[in-house]
């Protein structure tokens, strides 16, 4: 079964920017676009007059507006809409699970809000089993960047970063863009030093050459699979979030990973993804991968 690209909308400029991005993504992939809005009737325990049908009609109007917008810009695109009869987070998590990628809008440079209020957007990103892309409206409008490189953060071993790099290279190939792969590193704490680790660093000629070698090894299979995608290797000392944000101005898309693991307080986004989602001006794709 062909997975669609999905987008959650609420009628805001941010969600319309996400719809624009998702429609372009679906056209590039040659797959359908699903426009969804999570709404369910929830009577309030307060003396406020509620009109169930009026609220439902308003929700359907949100879907119709977004569908008309993307349909007009992409006449050949297969666009469907659905009113998700569920609470916001469960509804969108289920939608993400059956989609190639789910797009959501982001508002401002502070807390992630977008289509959803409070922490809902972050909860979806933290719990999704498929990639989720956060899209920010630019300059008060809904234009999303269509030029620039695909910026991707690489951490750990080639196996650790396979899902993240695979997503980034596929995006670059579809868009005719280059990839800038960033590996940030820091001096290990004293207790982490061992004769074995020192020997590996010495063989590579030092800590930074060791990190460059590790990045090249992680990129090798993707360079072979996508020989026409230009690749820039970027190795720099510092925190991963800071290093990525220092070069994000040239990017049309930033791709970061999120380890899929459960902690007592529930799923987490991770520090690198958190920094990217709150501060990157371009769309940010968060790709889940095994811990």
From TrEMBL:
It holds the Pfam family Usp. It comes from Streptomyces pyxinae. This is Universal stress protein. Residues 1-136, 150-288 form the UspA domain. Gene3D superfamilies: HUPs. Belongs to the universal stress protein A family.
């Amino acid at each position: 079964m062909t997975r669609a690209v999905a987008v959650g909308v609420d009628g805001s400029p941010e969600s319309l920017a996400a719809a624009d991005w998702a429609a372009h993504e679906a056209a590039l992939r040659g797959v359908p676009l699903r426009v969804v809005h999570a709404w369910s009737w929830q009577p309030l325990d307060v003396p406020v007059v509620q009109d169930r049908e009026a609220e439902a009609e308003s929700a359907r109007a949100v879907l119709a507006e977004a569908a008309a917008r993307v349909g007009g810009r992409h006449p050949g695109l297969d666009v469907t809409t659905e009113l998700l009869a569920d609470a916001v987070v469960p509804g969108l998590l289920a939608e993400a699970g059956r989609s190639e990628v789910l797009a959501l809008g982001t508002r401002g440079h502070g807390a992630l809000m977008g289509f959803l209020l409070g922490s809902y957007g972050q909860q979806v990103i933290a719990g999704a089993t498929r990639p989720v892309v956060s899209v920010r409206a630019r300059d008060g409008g809904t234009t999303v960047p269509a030029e620039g490189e695909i910026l991707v953060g690489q951490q750990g071993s080639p196996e650790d970063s396979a899902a993240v790099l695979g997503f980034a290279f596929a995006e670059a190939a579809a868009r005719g863009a280059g990839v800038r792969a960033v590996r940030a590193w820091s001096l290990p704490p004293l207790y982490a030093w061992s004769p074995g680790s020192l020997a590996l660093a010495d063989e590579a000629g030092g800590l930074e050459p060791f990190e460059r070698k590790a990045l090249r090894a992680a990129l090798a299979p993707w360079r072979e699979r996508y020989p026409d995608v230009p690749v820039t290797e970027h190795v720099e000392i510092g925190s991963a979030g800071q290093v990525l944000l220092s070069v994000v101005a040239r990017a049309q898309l930033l791709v970061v990973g999120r380890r899929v693991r459960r902690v007592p307080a529930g799923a987490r986004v991770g520090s690198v993804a958190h920094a990217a989602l709150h501060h990157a001006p371009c769309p940010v794709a968060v790709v889940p991968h095994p811990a």
